[in-house]
Amino acid sequence: MKDETVDDRQKEKNSWCVNWGRCHHENYCCWGHRDYRESSHERIRCATCIVKVGGTSGAVQVDMTSLDSIRRMYQTIGKVDAVISTAGNAQFGPLEQLTQKEFEVGISSKFLGQVNLVLLGRDFVNDDGSFTLTSGILSQDPIPGGAAVTPINAAVEGFVLGASIEMPRGLRINAVSPGVLEESMEKIGAFFR
Fold this sequence. Notes:
Blueprint: H1 8-14, E1 16-21, E2 30-31, E3 34-35, E4 49-54, E5 60-61, H2 67-77, E6 80-85, H3 100-121, E7 125-134, H4 150-164, E8 172-176, H5 185-188
Parallel strand pairs: 4-5, 6-7, 7-8
Antiparallel strand pairs: 1-4, 1-6, 2-3
Helix pairs in contact: 2-3, 3-4
């Protein structure tokens, strides 16, 4: 079966999460939504700070399939007001060629990776903060070749629905369900035509 997961270069464009809020770590501050690593040790307190996190790019790197990596990411960045995740891989392919392995890609990365962003992130998101996870249009509008992606997107939405009624300290959680991102069109766009 042809591997339709996003390659490393595409992951840099597609798989990143953004932590927004008051940044309290001197090396990961930005101003005017422009990321940079500060060269001096002078601390800049941003009113609005975005920290881009990626598998191989961004100010901080994270492996969405690793609890330790997600924990280190939060410890490195510190407290934030919100976490927005567009991270996670899933496998496209014809149903007759799918095996458990193709489903495990989405389960460990897109589903459990985002679940763990919330479970480990609760202590790092300030009171009344929020988590935004990404599911995808296939949870509502399946396509041929998407049988291993549709249940993963639906699982993300199910987690958000269940977690939303139990979030502590005024924390909020929601899911967004975009169509194909422009950055992904070259790799998986054919499945949506």
